[in-house]
């Protein structure tokens, strides 16, 4: 995996765990990594990440 994709993969994993749908699809290589990582997390039942976040912990980013 190329280092420049790490940030994109991390962002896509976070979006997937928070049920956020991207308007533009990620590159196929990114989608592959995201699917693999999320499936491993689901098997380990460690996706309690979203339930642990309170509304005050959520950060919004304006892409402008």
List the helices and strands and how they pair.
Blueprint: H1 6-17, H2 28-43, H3 49-52
Helix pairs in contact: 1-2
Can I get a quick summary?
The protein has 64 residues and is mostly helical.
User: How many strand units?
Assistant: 0
Beta-strand content: under 5%
Radius of gyration: 13 Å
Number of helices: 3
Which whole number gives the mean pLDDT? 79
Helical content stands at 40-55%
Topology pattern, helix = H, strand = E = HHH
Q: Describe the biggest sheet?
A: none
- Distance linking N and C termini: 29 Å
Going by helix content, strand content and strand pairing, the class is mainly alpha
Describe the structure.
- The protein is mostly helical.
- Helix content is 50%, strand content 0%.
- It has 3 helices and no strands.
- Helix 1 packs across helix 2.
- The mean pLDDT is 79.
Main attributes of the structure:
mainly alpha, 3 helices, 64 residues
